Amino acid sequence: MSMLRNIASGLRSLFRKEQTDLELDDELCTYLEMAAAEKMKQGMSRKDALRTVRLERGSLEATKEVIRTAGWEFLVETCLRDLRYAARGLRRNPGFATVAILSLALGIGANSAIFSVFDGVMLKSLPVEKPQELRRIRLEARTRNSGRFSYIEFERLRDSSQTSSGMAAMSRVVNVNLRVDGERQQESARMQLISGEYFPLLGVYPILGRTLAPDDNRTLSEHPVAVISGSYWQRRFGGTPNILGQAIVLNGAHFIIVGVAPRSFSGVWMEAPVDVWVPLMMQADVRYAQHYSASNSDSTKPWVPQEGIRWLDLILRVKRGSESEAMASVNAVFQRWVGREAESVGNLEERKLFLQRALVLDPFNRGFSDVRRDFAAPLFVLMAMVALVLLVACANIANLLLARGAARQREIAVRLSIGASRARLIRQLLTESVLLSSVGAALGLLVAHWGSALLVRMAAGVKAGPAPIAAGVDGHVLIFTAALAVCTGILFGLAPAFRMTRVELNAALRADTHSVRTRSRMSLTKMLVSSQVALSLVLVVGAGLFGKSLRNLLHLDGGFDREHLLTVRIDPQSFGYDKAQLEDISRQLVERVQSIPGVHSAAMAGCGLSDNCYNFEDGLQIMGYQTHPGEQMLVQGNIVGPKYFSTVGMQLLEGRDFSDRDNEKSPIVSIINEAMARRYFAGRSAIGQRFGSGTYNREIIGLVRDARVSSVQEAPVPMAYYFLPQMMAPAEAMEVRTAADPRWSVEEVRKVVTDVDPNLPIRSVTTLSDQVNENVTQERLVAFLTFVFGGLALGLACFGLYGVMSYAVSRRTPELGIRMALGASRHQVLWNVLLESLGLVGLGLALGVPSVLAASKLLSGLLFGLTASDPLTISGAVVILVGVAGIAASIPAFRAARVDPLVALRYE
Amino acid sequence: MADKPSDLVQGTLDMLILKTLALEPMHGYGIAVRLEQMSKGVFRLNAGSLFVAFQRLQRAGLIRGEWKATENGRRAKYYVLTDQGRKRLNSETREWGRQVAAIARILEAS
Q1: Does the pTM of the predicted model rise above 0.90?
Q2: Is A512 left (phi over 0), alpha (psi -120 to 50) or beta?
Q3: Which of A173, A608, A895, B69 could anchor a disulfide with A733, C-beta 3.0 to 4.6 Å?
Q4: What ipTM was predicted for this assembly?
Q5: Among residues A376, A379, A381, A385, which one has the least CA distance to residue A107?
Q6: How far is the C-alpha of A865 from the C-alpha of A713, rounded, in Å?
Q7: Window B:39-98, CB contacts with A under 8 Å
Q8: Predicted confidence (pLDDT) per residue in A315-324, tens digit
Q9: What is the Cα–Cα distance from A873 to A542, expressed in whole angstroms?
Q10: Phi and psi torsions of A175, nearest 5°
Q11: 3-state class of A289 per DSSP?
């Protein structure tokens, strides 16, 4: 209350200055008059009385000054005055102001842009009620960490835990074929299956109709209701209010739209915004068959009643402070069923491990994100790098300010000598630099606005359409930018301000500014240039390292021939073909595609080479392999059609390929990769060995090379290939080998597939090299940005070096003239200046190389195929820096060599 | 020492002004004279610190000013104690008493 009054009164005296001044005048006059009247009563003359009063009580003007400077508004007032003065100064010096503001706009804008992505990816919470209360349940065990639960497990946990206020289950987000009832066109949409508790738990309320409730998820296959997202409603239906009751077909199953979620909410998966939500009970109807692990179960039957199929993520709310109770409560439930299950585990050691498992609660305020996991480290590196660029820019501006300070020395000396305090002058100078950085930051916001959209698109590998990650200039970014503006202003302004106000008044006030000693000023300048060189070295080395790493990724030996490959992804399941029909379609597809001119061969597969859709099988047993207690037997599986290995160019090392002999009636056979052989058949031949889950029902008939597409950061995983005719699962991809550039065949292949079956949805037709590029978007982005940052820093540093040396040469013109008059050759002068510049660069490098080596440790996890202290890259960067700096320095050096002694001496 | 007007103990000027105004509304000069009289000339205030204190007290809402005519026909700004100011005066007086007693105890000990 009193603070408000204080501010109001302060503002009043700021904006109605004259009136408050007048009032104060009046009051003080009355005061002095009264005091004088008192004195006059005692017999003084009016004149004497007034003088005595002034002596005793202080003069009118001095008192007014004291009162005026007492309030906070005085500070504001002087700041405003300083600002006006600074703005006038900058307007008088437009060249300097433009250079400084533009480089700051770039530097601060780049920082804000990276920060906006960082904020969007790393910091932002879900747009739901009290996101910090959300938790996700995860099973923690020595053998298997898993977030997936079966529906039955979900029901148990939900129904018997008391402390948490509700629990919800959800599937992953998958692509489905959506058709609006009454239209012919199929389109792709993103769907998520959820339990009825999902929306109430998150506290997300519909903008139209209703959301799904627990009653929408009671009976298997009986709830054909769907909620669509606000953004999908806008995008697909133009925001029509008649949407409620609209029928849609999802993978062949009919649904009715009952509600629209708010636009701000697009699910809990950052990079997979959901278009449509349907109840979990509809899993089999929409043919959801991804992201699950199964044991003792049949994944072709509905999943809800099967305890062995784990496919759900569970989230719950935990009130502040009741974390441990919630944990105890879910674990009490969990232990009951684990205890029961453990009895079926024969091995004592295994049983002990089995019983040690527990449920843990992870914070879920930011939802799921792969991008966050993948980008965390690169984003930190980028934040650091862009900050370095800003530092280099700051050093430049500090140098410009120092140079300008030399010109302003007289002004400063005059102000000091008429009584301005040094602190007051420093404040004035800092106001000036903060004004500069603020204007720069304001422009920087434009850069950030544009840059963050570009970054997000590049990061997600999306060229058009809505950005998958919400990042942009918002409140957080504004605050960040404002803070950055003030900090940079002080950072580059402080040293020059101190240096500029330390003048020898006598020398400075003499007309001849040349006689002012500037040694210390020059040494600060040189220090700044050297540190610029050091910082740029760090950035150039970073660019080199990431560039090389990217090249290594792109030219990786993948274990197969990566050129001339085309992958067609189809979605045969959504139409509900039976196995015989699918086989027929597959055969026709291969035949027809192979008959396209320019196509070598084609083969069906469960999923594409670069897809990560392989199902991990849990609990495999391998004949002759003794598992350690608690060891997780992980083998990835893919099913492939005839001629698969020859089509993709994967070399068969041992054994035989699949053939017509292998069919539904013959025993299941498998071809494994080197990684699987290394891990499970070390020191013995894998051919003829058997493995399986439960029984040893699969025989190994061949061994192929490890195939790596581009997710190369990890070692190849053990992999088993099965033969399509022997397996139940459908083929969802076709690999096509072409003779020429596969891009040319894309359209033809697409046409043929449509010809074979017009109803068969084609997910994509892409070349493998495109897929490889897609898989390295993150590396490409980091390499590109570090390249830009490195170049920027290098340019700025050279600009700094050039500026400093030019300035030095112009100041030394008389000296150089004397030298030359005394017989120094042009050659010697040239070398003299050049060597001085190279000395600065050398000092910078001497500082930079150790910093590079220290910083490189942080990068090692992000590099592929080279160490972070790669000597070739570092020496290359040094050569580049010295070269470019040499060019920058040679201009003033040549200018120095061209000095005409006569002119130079007259100049003095 | 005794013949020279002393400086006020830090922070007590506000309290003294409030005390002066507790009797009746008063203009600036009147307050100064009253303080000097009541302190028997120990405190001599210059206009600067006095008016800064007025400004401070006004902003804190403890006093408010109004222009009125004086008994000899001059116009002057009279300061009036607000309810809040009265409360503050009471609490500060109490606190002051406590502190003085405490300091006295310490000085008298030993």
Answers
A1: no
A2: beta
A3: A608
A4: 0.80
A5: A385
A6: 9
A7: 44-49, 51-52, 55-56, 58-61, 74-77
A8: 998 888 888 8
A9: 9
A10: -80, 135
A11: coil
